[in-house]
From TrEMBL:
It comes from the Bacteria. The keyword Cytoplasm does not apply. Gene3D superfamilies: von Willebrand factor, type A domain. Keywords: Membrane, Transmembrane, Transmembrane helix. It comes from Cupriavidus pampae. Residues 151-435 form the VWFA domain. SMART domains: VWA (SM00327). The chain crosses the membrane at residues 20-39. This is VWFA domain-containing protein.
Amino acid sequence: MRTLSPRHPHPGHYRQRGQITIIAALTMIGLAGIVGLAVDAGMAYVTKARLNAAVDSAAVAAARAVTNGTTQAQQTAAAQQAASDFFHANFANGYLRGTPSLNTPSVQFEQGKVTISVSATSTMPLTLLKVLGFNNVAVAATSTSIRKDLDMIFVIDSSGSMNPVWSTVRSNANSFLNQFSPTTDRVGLVHFSSGGLTDVAIRTTQRGFDRPAMQTKITNMSNGGNTNYAEGLWQARDQLNSIPQTNRSSLRVVVFFSDGRPNTLAATYPLNGNRTCVGGITASSTTATPSGYYAFDKQNTTLTGNCDSLSGNKAPTQMPTYYNAHNASDTEFLIVGSKPNTVTSATNGNNLALNVYNAATNVPLAMASSMRDAGMYIFTLGLDGNGGFDADLLRNMANTADAPQYNSKQPSGIYCYAATINDLRPCFAKLASEILRISK
């Protein structure tokens, strides 16, 4: 019987098996690297997106906070703290196992402009790519926010209808000023009732404003009198235009606050005997008995002498053709024939009240349009109080998209409606936020 002896494998077979094992191992390592690259790259991409959002929000927050403080050192510290707070709120330590690091934000003041740069990294441990010898990756992001220079006139209605809420109005107005930089922003202050006054003139060469002094002015401001929108706007326009062209800021803004409808119109009124009275006439409605004359450059002062009443030979013989309170020869803003309300030259009977009441709205609308043509933004705030109210008028002045007379070729501002005194502070905050938004 033949016995079969076991066959011995050919020596070359061992070598082939060894080669296959090595190739398989290398293939597995390669596959692990490819998979690891996909997984880790995906995590790095998500980390990068989150990091970008965090530094962006930090830069915006810093630009808003840079107004806090009265010196550049204080403003820099405020901006850096805000950047840090917002960054860490939006990118938590350990996000996707990463370790974030925020560099000290750079805050540069130059010619009325503040440039804030925020940069950060997140060191993220790798997973499958470790088989290729890579342990972690650093993801970086940067963001820059530029806050443009600002020229702003703050116009406050100080008419008698404000009396029940006057202390709260002044407090909220002072808080509003805290949103702007006393070293880089130029701010002027105007208030109006029967007439308009510039309380703090805007600086025409240097930047900044004296915020404590302006807030003291507001705190000590009295109220009383009628509502003369035109004089408030005229003072604001005159202040902004007083800055030489070469010194003007890139952003020019008027913030206009009122609780009522305009009812007073100042002009050079012709009288019998080739005489005139330069002052304001008030008509609280189209049928009310007019009163006047009021000084156009004082809060609530009636004139004396030949202009101490509207009766007899002191009554106007006709409506002035143009708004000419500041200069009898001015012909820029039409009164007789102005729109949208009909205004004629007649002053007999009830016509004086009708024409003054209508022109008191037409003239500020024309002024606001002229200011917007010059590139100025107008922001309006209406408090629903004791003075009557015309929301469409304030929308038209601001040129909001929903305004009846919206003009798409002019800058569009913001109108905020404060239904009660408790809504006033949020409205001021909204206007400040929007101004800061367009200043970037």
